[in-house]
Amino acid sequence: MDRLKISGGKPLSGTIPISGAKNSALKLMAAALLTPEPVTLTNMPNLADTRFLSQLLSTLGVEVYWPKGDATCHLNAAELTSTIAPYEQVRKMRASFNVLGPLLARYGHATVSLPGGCAIGARPVDLHLKAFEAMGADLLVEQGYVKAAAIHGLKGAHIVFPFVSVGATEHAMLAATLANGETVLENAAREPEIADLADCLNSMGAQGSGAGPATITIEGVEKLHGTTHDVMADRIEAGTYAMVVAAAGGDVTLTNAPVAALSAVNHALRNAGIIVDADKDARTLRIQRNGSKLNAVNIDTAPHPGFPTDMQAQFMALMSLADGTSIIRENIFENRFMHAPELSRLGANISVRGHEAIVKGVDALKGAPVMATDLRASVSLVIAALAAQGETEVSRIYHLDRGFERLEQKLTAVGADVRRVSAEEE
Ligand code: UD1
């Protein structure tokens, strides 16, 4: 298993290009199942997760042409050979579950493994399943699989989500495009990736409106056609590099940044005393911290436009060096503080009480061996390591490879000392 060796304490300078958004790309890839015509996705991030999904799509019979390292992915679901998504593939990555809706909508039946829980929480899919039932599907959950059928096709439905779910909103949108009649989704998620998916679906001939506000309306059509769609830039990757610079110090410009999607993160950074110059037109975000102290800032994670849960671990790493105490509340996932004990190994002073972490800022962190536990938690350790004195070794970095494209190269390019060590090298 590879590890990262990081020597901290070096101020950073230069430019970091932001890649396409993992969370958007995964749903856009699933959208290709809705049409027999080719779908081309540009600005695709080369990540373990997007590669997993391309393998699953190939298993279903989708022709995938996506050379290694390339940012353009060609998908052609002209003729599928299977509507079964097996456990071995879905368990590797939860978002694979999103093939259920498109398969059901286009073919009238699908068998997809339940994704199971994951380190950050139980993450059930009950809202997804209720949405499909409301659209007329017959569902049987048996031996870890969802067997879904809608012999006469899905029908439009009025669905009111009891709470906001990004995945359930996207999944229902995908299915509703080919349903018979109008679907209205109330209390829908408003994450920027939802608008990206809606743009792609509409460019395929879907009749949707309102992605962005909490009510989305989709008038089902008989057929969708192919398209070429540019994946939106990754707001979590951009926010993460902003925190890297905030923690380590320096002056770095992020290019191709989804500036408008980062309001809550930029607001928190400015409150912490970081200089953030956001240029929406140029799509750049310049982050500066030159020796200034960090103010302690409280945050509460919330659905968009609130502070993203996917940035909570990174912000905790930053706050561990703040001048004062900050309170960080996690309101989306029930078990998303696994980075706290690892950050403590680097000298952070964090106590966790239920869904609240109390972070008392310390003067300095010191390098130590630490272990990544999930995707965003692992990058919080990288942030802390870059700000720490001495060397930190982060193990289990396969978590990082799921969601951060060329992490070491991007960090090295701005002056960080980060090295990947493979098990064979030692
Ligand atoms: C997506 C993102 C993830 C992000 C999360 C919240 C992807 C691939 N992943 O995950 O990075 O952290 O949004 O912004 O896009 N829930 C239920 N029943 C359901 C669905 C969800 O109880 O049927 C619960 C979840 O356990 C969680 C909360 O609702 O506590 C929100 O989850 P949701 O918004 O659905 O997250 P994901 O779509 O899984």
Summarize the structure in words:
- The chain is an alpha/beta fold and 426 residues long.
- It contains 14 helices and 24 strands.
- The chain has helices at residues 22-31, 48-60, 87-90, 100-107, 126-134, 166-176, 192-203, 235-248, 263-271, 312-319, 339-345, 375-387, 398-403, 407-413, and strands at residues 3-7, 12-17, 38-42, 63-65, 73-76, 84-85, 109-113, 138-142, 145-149, 158-160, 182-186, 207-209, 216-219, 227-230, 250-255, 275-279, 284-289, 299-300, 325-329, 349-353, 356-360, 369-371, 391-395, 417-421.
- A 4-stranded mixed beta sheet has the order 22-23-1-24. It has a 4-stranded mixed beta sheet with strand order 2-15-17-16.
- A hairpin with a 6-residue loop joins strand 12 and strand 13 (216-219).
- Helix 4 packs parallel to helix 6, helix 5 packs parallel to helix 6 (166-176) and helix 8 (235-248) runs parallel beside helix 12 (375-387).
- The chain is globular.
- The mean pLDDT is 95.
- It binds uridine-diphosphate-N-acetylglucosamine.
- Residues 23, 26, 95, 121-128, 165-168, 309-310, 332-333 line the site of uridine-diphosphate-N-acetylglucosamine (UD1).
